[in-house]
Amino acid sequence: MQRLANLSAARTDAGPTAIEVAGLSHVYDGREGKVPALEDIAMTVGAGRFVVIVGPSGCGKTSLLMMLAGLRRPSEGAILCNGRPIPSPDPERVGVVFQEASLFPWLSAQDNVEFPLALRHAPRAERRRRATDMLDLVGLQGFGGRYPHELSGGMKQRVAIARGLVQDPPVLLMDEPFAALDEQTRMTMGHELLRIWSQTLKTVVFITHSLTEAVYLADEVLVMSARPGRIIDRIAIALPRPRTYDMMATDTFGRLRDRIWQQIRTAD
């Protein structure tokens, strides 16, 4: 409770915050004893911001994201989402998109997007309308009747993003959603994600191993150390929006990417 009180007291007038984390640490119980995974994580994500988390493999990025989603409880520390703790999943506040699209193969794209609403017993007409709107938003007009095996990898991820957005959560957490895609599709999906973000004004926390992707997408990049994961750098990405592919060839873009790489090399 004291952690929560400290978080509330530490708020400033810099603007509304979507996510606040203080003193977050986590230890896993493994076969060979306790394994420290995260250590004293503190972070604040402003409402409507796009924050990217990078770090060495195994540094606890996904564990942190799962805790922000209420899917895992930390050993210590406090998390506030829109001013309230999130001890369990709350799809009205937080949507999650995973690395694998994880679509139900026996359901159409439309039905996959509707599924979270069906679990909440939303009226069928409302489910259909909201799912159709989300499929339109992610650029899949006319593909609602297709099944996963009829869709490309990029299209499957678009369905997964639509499913994450269908309950209209203010926060969207994304765990390497484009990692399995080829480079060309990955770049296209990143550009499409920025379009969706600009239209929906969601707060996005995005995990990636791609430093180019991190700089291209983010307002701010958080760099984590090797296990136990700590935030060792916060890098503001002062590139104008909307972002363009041409920016990747600029000296500014290169310097930002190099700074992140040097931090990760030192941290690994």
Quick summary of this structure?
36% of the residues lie in helices and 25% in strands. With 268 residues, the protein is α/β, with parallel strands linked by helices. The strands form 2 sheets. A 6-stranded mixed beta sheet has the order 6-7-8-3-9-10, sandwiched between helices.
Topology readout:
Layout: H1 2-10, E1 17-30, E2 33-46, E3 50-54, H2 61-68, E4 76-81, E5 84-85, E6 94-97, H3 109-119, H4 124-137, H5 153-165, E7 171-175, H6 183-200, E8 203-207, H7 211-217, E9 220-224, E10 231-236, H8 251-267
Parallel strand pairs: 3-8, 3-9, 6-7, 7-8
Antiparallel strand pairs: 1-2, 1-4, 4-5, 9-10
Helix pairs in contact: 3-4, 3-5, 4-5, 7-8
Kindly describe this structure.
By secondary structure, the protein is an alpha/beta fold. It folds into 2 domains: 2-93 and 169-267, P-loop containing nucleotide triphosphate hydrolases (Rossmann fold, 3-Layer(aba) Sandwich); 105-168, no CATH class. Helix content is 36%, strand content 25%. The protein is built from 8 helices and 10 strands. The protein has a 6-stranded mixed beta sheet, with helices on both faces. Helix 6 links the parallel strand 7 and strand 8. Helix 4 crosses helix 5. The radius of gyration is 19 Å and the shape is globular. The chain starts with a helix and ends with a helix. 37% of the residues are buried. Mean pLDDT is 92; it is low at 8-13.
